[in-house]
TrEMBL record:
Binds 1 zinc ion. GO terms for cellular component: cytoplasm. Pfam families: YbeY. This is Endoribonuclease YbeY. It is found in: Cytoplasm. Its cofactor is Zn(2+). Coiled coil: none annotated. One of its GO terms (molecular function) is RNA endonuclease activity. Single strand-specific metallo-endoribonuclease involved in late-stage 70S ribosome quality control and in maturation of the 3' terminus of the 16S rRNA. One of its GO terms (biological process) is rRNA processing. Its EC number is 3.1.-.-.
Length: 155
């Protein structure tokens, strides 16, 4: 897989974001799940833009961390196209609350969105546990450490 299949665009002021590291993360996720043929476009945005996208496509007026779209044609098994919109401002806030850097939180959001595109789901508790375990394994391997599991459990 070449990095040419991965486009990451910063649409928000984010001085602490290392695009090359995020590109390497995306390549490792795709490689892990035999999806190196995929084309991935990631837009890193702020609250305002992701809220507009969330409202337009999902009918929800709240901000969110990541929205992922699988733009692949149903008839074409050979062409996978994934489009992610990722919220840097939320990542920065959450990272500060959880005492890690925004890059690690952003990496979690990107990994989460890609896993959705690759068939993972987190609606059912058992599926969510499987997905979050995969996220932490991926992020540890990529050098970010355990990002998701470090969160407090929701009750």
């Amino acid at each position: 897989m070449s990095a040419g299949n991965i486009e990451i665009t910063l649409n928000v002021e984010a001085p602490d974001v290392d695009i090359d590291t995020l590109r390497d993360l995306v390549m490792s996720v795709l490689d892990r799940y035999d999806a190196t043929d995929a084309t991935v476009s990631i837009s890193i945005v702020g609250d305002e833009i992701i809220t507009q996208v969330h409202q337009q496509f999902l009918g929800d007026e709240k901000t969110t961390d990541v929205i992922s779209f699988d733009l692949s044609e149903a008839e074409s098994e050979n062409e996978r196209i994934f489009d992610l919109v990722v919220n840097y401002e939320m990542a920065s806030r959450q990272a500060q609350q959880r005492s890690h850097d925004a890059q690690a939180e952003l990496a979690l959001y990107i990994t989460h969105g890609l896993l959705h595109n690759l068939g993972f789901d987190d609606i059912d508790p058992a599926d969510a546990e499987k997905m979050h375990k995969a996220e932490d394994e991926i992020l540890q391997t990529a050098g970010f450490g355990v990002v998701y599991a470090a969160r407090p459990k929701e009750s």
